[in-house]
Design a protein that fits this description.
Layout lengths: L1 H9 L10 H25 L7 H21 L3 H11 L11 H18 L3 H20 L7 E10 L6 H12 L3 E9 L2 E11 L4 H11 L4 E5 L8
Antiparallel strand pairs: 1-3, 1-4, 2-3
Helix pairs in contact: 2-3, 2-5, 2-6, 3-5, 5-6
């Protein structure tokens, strides 16, 4: 704070930017390249239907902008306070749909800051490490449950009673991890919809064949993958 007051009182602060043109070019270009790498990793690891091209572009623009801001600030305390005041009026009103997107925003900001203070080697190493870690965690499905939830619909004639038999088979296949979501009569058919958690090794094709062989007179549908969608 004392240094800041001295700079204001002296009124002799240099107008020189504190960096050369080549340092400026190296910082913003490297920030752009590294943030493009981060955006490609984001596109590769993203799951669901909430993918946004504008968010990918935001990652790049934010990293480049932060690197330039860090160049402007340098070690000048007065500029730092001025920029804080100027940036405090900015408001971001778009809601983050996926909490994981926040980590990519901070990752881009960190890379931009490293480039802005001319720590080019650290920026490259950190981008490679963080990107490799994200790809590894996505490749091994880290954090995913060992079981996969599926919705199963059974449709049959109201004159026939398959409920007890269906629930007995579901209990044997899921270990009791199932629940009846709806039961209704549509036209000439009674429709039952169950939510069931099957082991991931059991594919949808195998389950459908097994149910089709056991219930040849039933119309059976299996829905899977909806748990990966984020809206």
């Amino acid at each position: 704070m004392d240094e800041f007051l001295k700079q204001i009182q002296s009124g002799q602060e240099s107008l020189a930017p504190g960096f050369t043109f080549w340092e400026f070019a190296a910082s913003v270009v490297l920030a752009a390249l590294l943030s493009m790498t981060i955006s490609l990793i984001y596109r590769r690891t993203h799951g669901g239907i909430s993918y946004s091209r504008s968010f990918v572009l935001t990652i790049i623009i934010m990293s480049v902008t932060v690197s330039f801001i860090m160049l402007i600030i340098g070690s000048n305390l007065a500029r730092a306070f001025s920029l804080v005041g100027a940036l405090s009026i900015v408001r971001y009103r778009n809601a983050i749909k996926d909490s994981r997107d926040i980590s990519y925003i901070f990752l881009a900001m960190a890379v931009g800051m490293a480039c802005g203070v001319k720590l080019y080697g650290m920026a490259i190493v950190f981008t490679l490490f963080a990107g490799g870690l994200l790809l590894l965690l996505d490749g091994i499905s880290f954090g995913a449950q060992g079981r996969l939830e599926r919705l199963i619909q059974f449709a049959f004639s109201p004159t026939e009673d398959y409920v007890d038999r269906i629930e007995k088979d579901l209990k044997a296949l899921t270990g009791g991890r199932f629940a009846l979501l709806s039961s209704e009569t549509l036209g000439q058919q009674k429709v039952l919809v169950y939510s069931a958690e099957f082991p991931r090794k059991r594919t949808t094709h195998d389950l459908l064949n097994q149910f089709a062989a056991s219930y040849q007179n039933l119309d059976i549908k299996i829905l899977t993958g909806f748990d990966r969608f984020t809206i």
